[in-house]
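Could you help me review a protein record that somebody else here produced? Here is the record exactly as it was handed to me:
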Amino acid sequence: MERRRFIEVIAGGLLAAPLAAEAQPGKVFRVGILTTGSPTDPSSVHLLGAFFQRLRELGYVEGQNLAVERRFAEGKYERFPDLAADLVRLKVDIIVAAGGLSPFAAQKATKTIPIVMTNQADPVGGGLVASLARPGGNITGLSLLVPEIVGKQLQLLKEVIPRVSRVAILRNPANKTHAHSLKEVEVAARSLRVQPQTFEARGSEEFDGAFAAMTRERAGALLVLSDPMFWFNRTRIADLAATQRLPTMFAQREHAEAGGLMAYGANLSDALRQAATYVDKILKGAKPGDLPVEQPKKFELVINLKTAKALGLTIPQSVLGRADEIIQ
């Protein structure tokens, strides 16, 4: 599937290029991309492809009126400060901060270069913006409302596994939004009569220990909080969960495509396309502090039936009927 999507992105870019017109005659804009992904990961390529496809529709063509500086953290949060500082030294016109700590690193690196965040869970609580309606400062973009949907994710797990009593919650202590998410989990867990068990991993080297602890604590399912490091290591997490026979819930469809049981959350491709619209407005003179932070336009439920079969689970028809996509 990832191979097919990679090919679609390349083909789509070739077809779209002739349709684009110059946004401003003679002007070449320099855009900095700061992302947790990898240039060799097909899903990272696909998501950035959605962003650049929308820019082409708006009249920006790389190599003509657009120069792009790409910086990939490859799942390592500690790389963000240096990568952000590098973009500032290059004097880019705008920084697109795609996920994780990238908006925080970009904001710390510059107070003047406009920043567009693509999928920040809690920009107000994290101190990135003053409010969603009036961000202020030099940053705006998309809020994915991730903390507010973890209750729904837990509810879906309970519907699929009615007898589950203990649900493991995997968090990254370095993620500033996870404290809020855990509070939402606790509220939902009380109403659903399940016991949440929190486990931590700051990097991929801590996954084995976290999953071993889940087994010791007899967790019956796993909810993985939204985190770019987890997204980058999605196949590894799905494989570990399969080994431990843990039904899983994630926030992004790419996790389900990598072998997770279910994913419920905002569509990242849509978010990247929306981010391109912000870039267009800012390059045309809008101030980021005056552009309201937008919230998701689409949430989707993706279910991997192949994984369900391997776990010996039958997904209730009431849940299947709400799925936006079913992976066979």
Summary: The radius of gyration is 20 Å. Residues 42-57 form the longest helix (16 residues). The chain has two domains: 2-144+268-297, 146-265+300-327.
